[in-house]
Amino acid sequence: MAKKDFSKVNTQDIYSTQIEEATQDAPTTRKERKTYNAQEAQEFLNAGETRGRKGLHQPRINVAFPADLYEYAKTMSRVTGVSLTKFVQDALRDHMDAHQDIYKKAIEFKNSL
């Protein structure tokens, strides 16, 4: 069987149509991204938000709670409308504020070693 000769077929119209379609502004399905100025970016980094952000990881610990403390923290976080993590962080921050003088002395002692 002989090969077919396509050299006489005019393909100019096909190529020009494809180029024309490719250069037209096609509607995109992507959402427009929000851009931040330098001040907004710095405020965002200082806020410590880490959810879904590469390179922004806070130290983590695995803590075992007795059942009653866990149930209390879980219930109170829901009542106050914050996450369990935020509730525990706030409780620790309140404790830290109440015992700031002891903390400073402990840091001084640690640095003197």
Q: Can you describe what's shown?
A:
This protein is mainly α and 113 residues long. It is built from 5 helices and no strands. The longest helix is centred in the C-terminal third of the chain and has 15 residues, at 84-98. It is elongated. The chain starts with 11 loop residues before the first helix and ends with a helix.
Q: Gap between N and C termini, in Å?
A: 92 Å
Strand content bin: under 5%
Helix content: 55-70%
The helix tally amounts to: 5
Judged by helices, strands and strand pairing, the structural class is mainly alpha
Shape: elongated
Top keywords for this entry?
single chain, 113 residues, mainly alpha, 5 helices, 57% helix, elongated
List the helices and strands and how they pair.
Blueprint: H1 12-23, H2 38-47, H3 67-80, H4 84-98, H5 100-112
Helix pairs in contact: 3-4
Please provide a brief summary of the model.
The chain has 113 residues and is mostly helical. Helices cover 57% and strands 0% of the residues.
